[in-house]
Amino acid sequence: MNTLMLQDILGDPERADLLTPADRRGLTPLFWSRVRPYGEVNLDMDTRLDPTAATVPGPRAADGKTVRSTVQRT
């Protein structure tokens, strides 16, 4: 779907008024199906994750700041 073509149609009041609410709802997936809300995710299936490199939040200190600790393997 050419978004510039849709932009021209929706920008023209005479043509935009021809669209019913159902027509406008039908256009929504055309725009949102291409959106990646978390960016592009590239998975490298040839390498393994290192669980010892992960950091987890620790208990909060008295001043309200979170103390970070590293996961220790036992």
List keywords for this structure.
single chain, alpha+beta, two-stranded antiparallel ribbon, 3 helices, 15% strand
Question: What is the molecular shape?
Answer: elongated
Largest sheet: 2 strands, antiparallel
- Distance between the terminal alpha carbons, to the nearest Å? 56 Å
Order of strands across the widest beta sheet?
A: 1-2
Low-confidence stretches: none
Judged by helices, strands and strand pairing, the structural class is alpha+beta
Strand content: 5-15%
N-to-C SSE string, H for helix and E for strand: HHHEE
What's the helix count?
A: 3
Please give the number of β-strands.
Answer: 2
Helix share, percent: 25-40%
Mean pLDDT comes to 75
Radius of gyration over C-alpha positions, nearest whole angstrom: 25 Å
Quick structural overview:
This protein is α+β, with helices and mostly antiparallel strands and 74 residues long.
Description:
The protein is α+β, with helices and mostly antiparallel strands. Helices cover 34% and strands 15% of the residues. The chain contains three helices and two strands. Strands 1-2 form a two-stranded antiparallel ribbon. Strand 1 and strand 2 (66-70) form a beta hairpin. The protein is elongated, with a radius of gyration of 25 Å. The chain starts with a helix and ends with a strand. 0% of the residues are buried. The model has no long low-confidence stretch (mean pLDDT 75).
